[in-house]
């Protein structure tokens, strides 16, 4: 049973395999300054288009550093833009966004403070002017990120781009439509796209009465317990803004029993999901909690059901320990 506390309160290890991937690594509470706007500046002496230009090692150092800072800051668009043309042709932004989101969750689960990380130095080898191998020497951690292993970079489109993205894959079934089969729910840590909303369940605690009461909620009735999950919703739709409560509905489900109230176990604390919040494209809601009072007999085999109210499509998330 997963009983770690949510990231916004306390970071403890979660039951996850820690793989801190190379061309990857969207927001724990640890963050740092965003990557500088000139992380991959245009070099006026180089040719545009299909490469053929020559990039300086100083520009390569800046691009490689900027890419890692973009990961730390959750700036996934900057990170995606610093991938090579061949990587961007193979991977949609959503796949890279999913990859980086999962990477940050694994770092949080390993109790790594991303805000404390930095780049101490950049080591460049096998440089030919339009290709090179780069190793980042990181400060603030004893963990081995794959940026601290050799990464291939290429000079193209008037700038340096990371060409080492073989470990980033499209999500199972793609983001759109993933999780609509109740018998094949999105696993813990998986991401799916629900009408422009990207959702991940990042924390599961089937019996979390202490935290809920601490946040102003009511104790469970006899034979019940308070089931808490933590979501990471971000909005990537095309509308200028949307209202979560008008778009989506949430319930915890076991068999034919549906726990669909929106009271969040009696608490109106800001830690819980605010169904009235307006957001625009690219906005995220941090890591809000969602709580339901459920029968103790149901707690070990629970699913989260998220309904897209515009279409009636139901999406399912596994809330049991894997």
Describe the structure.
With 322 residues, the protein is of the alpha+beta class. Helix content is 17%, strand content 25%. The protein is built from six helices and 15 strands. The protein has helices at residues 57-73, 76-81, 85-90, 93-109, 209-214, 244-247, and strands spanning 118-125, 131-139, 151-156, 159-162, 191-194, 197-205, 224-231, 234-235, 242-243, 248-254, 257-259, 278-279, 289-295, 303-308, 314-318. Strands 5, 6, 7, 8 and 13 form a five-stranded antiparallel beta sheet that branches. It has a four-stranded antiparallel beta sheet with strand order 1-2-3-4, with helices on one face. Mean pLDDT is 77; it is low at 1-52.
Which descriptors apply to this entry?
elongated; five-stranded antiparallel β-sheet; four-stranded antiparallel β-sheet; disordered N terminus; alpha+beta; 2 domains; Immunoglobulin-like; 322 residues; 6 helices
Strand content: 25-35%
In whole angstroms, the N-to-C terminal distance is 9 Å
**What is the domain tally?**
2
Average pLDDT rating: 77
Q: What is the CA-based Rg, rounded?
A: 21 Å
Tell me the layout of helices and strands.
Elements: H1 57-73, H2 76-81, H3 85-90, H4 93-109, E1 118-125, E2 131-139, E3 151-156, E4 159-162, E5 191-194, E6 197-205, H5 209-214, E7 224-231, E8 234-235, E9 242-243, H6 244-247, E10 248-254, E11 257-259, E12 278-279, E13 289-295, E14 303-308, E15 314-318
Antiparallel strand pairs: 1-2, 2-3, 3-4, 5-6, 6-7, 6-8, 7-13, 9-12, 10-11, 10-14, 14-15
